[in-house]
From TrEMBL, chains A, B:
Protein name according to UniProt: TetR/AcrR family transcriptional regulator
Domain HTH tetR-type intervals: 6-66
SUPFAM superfamilies per record: Homeodomain-like
Biological source species: Umezawaea endophytica
PANTHER family per the UniProt record, alphabetical: HTH-TYPE TRANSCRIPTIONAL REGULATOR RUTR, MYCOFACTOCIN BIOSYNTHESIS TRANSCRIPTIONAL REGULATOR MFTR-RELATED
DNA-binding residue intervals: 29-48
Origin: domain of life: Bacteria
GO MF, one annotated term: transcription cis-regulatory region binding
UniProtKB keywords: DNA-binding, Transcription, Transcription regulation
Matching InterPro entries: DNA-bd_HTH_TetR-type_CS, Homeodomain-like_sf, HTH-type_TetR-like_transc_reg, HTH_TetR, MftR_C
Keyword check for Transcription regulation: yes
Length: 186, 186
């Protein structure tokens, strides 16, 4: 059982998802989430700054990806270093059934969909720093990250739908599709 | 002189930018923007649903890009059709000095930066529909759009910095860089 299954943060995340599904995001309070998780409101705020944040797992993914880029073989291109890091994201992903429910709840609530976009932009900013430390010029870094995130989105949506697939393999597949999609026709 | 220079919408946009720069986004009211533009609050709401929207020019860009994709040569790949449309965005861009000031104001105000992300996501959604009408499967459409938008962001940031460059040329240049950046090293 992954660590989060049994800890307070995990209980809060699952309680929040249950409540957002059953009664909607807007009508759910932090107090209700904490109570459903058997915790106090004060405990909630130890893990999350606000209600919108509870489905976004703090900065775990960002920290994991930055560490992955920093640890990647220096001989890799910036794009390859990013894909290598993004291919390990499933190491810290929540269980697939939780993520599938989460995707639906986020899509149904504009406040959560906005937070999702902001989180992704924050991750892109953090990765820009990680690539710059590998000697990549900032504009090129940002460009390469935008493209790598597109590859990751394509791979992750397939990973969510296919219990037998490995995320790293799906990223390789999506990168191959990218190369074909951008090939000149002439 | 482009149409927006002399019309009410343009006056509101310029007044808002002046006020956001001089006193900050949070401290500026819709009433102040309208007054500075020589218009009523009621007129403001004829053009924009709220204060956050005033720097985002309604749905002009989205409509322009969707029309561009729909009009693109059916023989073009989805990626080429998108780049062709994105390369004409400067036809409806505001003047460069306005856009440069706008970039700085948006970056300095989290509420505007969020709206910027949401606008971009809305444009991506709209373009997905346009590609689907060209027969592209939704997942592939979204992926290709994410990549094309990355190319467009790279090109547009250069266009803003270089008064002599044509956006369409910078998009071709960024697409070439993309092909090099994603090439396998083996």
């Amino acid at each position: 059982m992954p660590r989060w299954e049994s800890d307070a943060q995990g209980r809060l995340e699952r309680a929040a998802l249950d409540l957002f599904e059953s009664q909607g995001f807007e009508r759910t309070s932090v107090a209700q989430i904490a109570r459903a998780a058997g915790l106090t409101e004060r405990s909630f705020y130890r893990y999350f700054p606000d209600k919108r944040e509870v489905l976004f797992a703090g900065d775990e993914l960002e920290a994991h990806l930055v560490a992955g880029v920093e640890a990647a073989d220096p001989g890799l291109t910036p794009f390859e270093a990013l894909l290598t890091a993004l291919g390990t994201a499933d190491e810290i992903f929540r269980p697939r059934d939780f993520l599938l429910r989460r995707v639906a709840v986020v899509a149904a609530n504009p406040a959560l969909a906005e937070r999702d976009l902001i989180k992704l932009a924050d991750i892109a900013d953090a990765l820009t720093g990680a690539l710059e430390r590998r000697g990549v010029e900032p504009g090129e870094a940002r460009f390469t990250i935008d493209v790598a995130i597109a590859v990751s989105r394509r791979a992750t949506s397939r990973w969510l739908a296919d219990p037998d697939a490995a995320l790293a393999d799906l990223i390789v597949q999506a990168a191959d599709e990218l190369r074909r999609a951008v090939a000149p026709t002439r």
